[in-house]
Amino acid sequence: MKGTIVWLTGLSASGKSTIATALERELSAMGVHAYVLDGDNIRRGLNADLGFSPEDRAENIRRIGEVAKLFCDAGLVVVTAFISPYRADRQRARSLVDAGDFIEVFVNASLAVCEQRDPKGHYKKARAGKLPDFTGLSAPYEPPEKPEIILDTEHDTPSECVAQVLRCLQGNGRI
């Protein structure tokens, strides 16, 4: 089986972690070795020394790209769930693997919907000035220009979004 990186990108609270976890569960049920890399398991360990400046964000994504490449080389489907706000950083991660091994997935939800969801209270803190450089408010987010998949998490359920990713993986002979 060929390793693949499924790179979920989108604003905070767009649904990246929800979809990543559900996708990993579905892949495992199909007998596909998969692993999720997200902020909870990366920022506490490997990238605990990084903040949220543009330079630190770039280094965060660089390291994640390198780790994802290792998982891909080992034949796993690695699902990353990071805001990864800059196109150049996502392109750098894509360039680490062979063509076809990287599937960029834009988890698309409007700022208003993400702010309404706000499960961790980040938008509220950012609006109160307690979280500087918050993506979508005081720091930029550059949506993908040509992602392989666009998920509409405002209108589609997490299971519909997961099904869309699975169809892409199956259609490309990845699983």
Question: If you had to describe this structure to a student in words, what would you say it looks like?
Answer:
This protein has seven helices and five strands. It is α/β, with parallel strands linked by helices and 175 residues long. The protein has a single domain (4-171), classed as Rossmann fold (3-Layer(aba) Sandwich), CATH 3.40.50.300. The chain has a five-stranded parallel sheet, sandwiched between helices. Helix 1 packs across helix 7. The termini are close together. The model has no long low-confidence stretch (mean pLDDT 95).
Features:
single chain, alpha/beta, Rossmann fold, 7 helices
Task: Provide a brief overview of the structure.
This protein has 175 residues and is α/β, with parallel strands linked by helices. The chain has helices at residues 16-29, 39-42, 54-73, 87-94, 111-117, 122-127, 158-171, and strands at 4-9, 34-38, 77-81, 102-108, 149-152. The protein has a single domain, classed as 3-Layer(aba) Sandwich (Rossmann fold).
